[in-house]
Amino acid sequence: GQQVMQIPQYQHVQEGEDFTTYCNSSTTLSNIQWYKQRPGGHPVFLIQLVKSGEVKKQKRLTFQFGEAKKNSSLHITATQTTDVGTYFCAGRSNTGKLIFGQGTTLQVKP
Amino acid sequence: KAGVTQTPRYLIKTRGQQVTLSCSPISGHRSVSWYQQTPGQGLQFLFEYFSETQRNKGNFPGRFSGRQFSNSRSEMNVSTLELGDSALYLCASSLVSQQDVSGNTIYFGEGSWLTVV
Question: Which of A4, A30, A32, A45 to probe the B interface (max B CBs under 10 A)?
Fold first, then answer.
């Protein structure tokens, strides 16, 4: 069945360093969504990407959707302690099913 | 405005019982989706309802069902509970169908913690 692999599982960075998490789907996606979940909190929707090769920015966060619509990445520039949490991607198949990646947990050392 | 409200927040059930969870979306939102979150399986999509119609369904057995009422409030039901159903059940609402939110936002509730013993 459809799978969405997300790497790395964990990432520890020093405050000010950059961070990137990657998602790869076994099938072509109609869109991909990104979420952030703080420890003990509920997921917070960040963005949806729809178009092949799409790049969107939200302040220090840059989201990309691959040309083949099978992979995506989230890049954070100059991490801050407020960026701590788990980042999930969720790929939507052409049949409408939504499959989540396993998430990347980011720790930021001040 | 009030956020997404889920009730109950915590509950304990016995194997074999059934449970109904409720979700009240943000006023005006017509889409409600349900998710299961466990340490082992992570986040998994259960189903989405939009204007009382099920739009999408995840890969869960038929014991998991849901519905949406005319006021957009939604319920999900799990019958014949198993130990593995212990999880945080999350509900999310949005103005448009979550299949393609296109510039809109999805809002999550705090979740319902279900423990099956």
Answer: A45
Q: B59 vs A97: CB contact, 8 Å cut-off?
A: yes
Compute the distance between CA of residue B57 and CA of residue B48 in angstroms, rounded to an integer.
7
Do B107 and B94 contact (CB within 8 A), yes or no?
yes
Tens of pLDDT along A24-66? 999 999 999 999 999 999 999 999 999 999 999 999 999 999 9
A98 near B CB under 8 A: yes
DSSP chain B: ----EEE-SEEEE-TT--EEEEEEPPTT--EEEEEEEETTTEEEEEEEEETTEEEEE-S--TTEEEEE-TTS-EEEEE-S--GGG-EEEEEEEESS-TT--TT---EE---EEEEE-
Over residues B61-74, the pLDDT tens digits come to: 999 999 999 999 99
- Interface touch A98/B56, C-beta < 8 Å: yes
Closest chain A residue to B43, measured at CA: A100
Q: How far is A106 from chain B (nearest CA, A)?
A: 16
Angle CA(A68)–CA(B54)–CA(B87) in degrees, nearest 5?
85
At B24 the pLDDT is 98
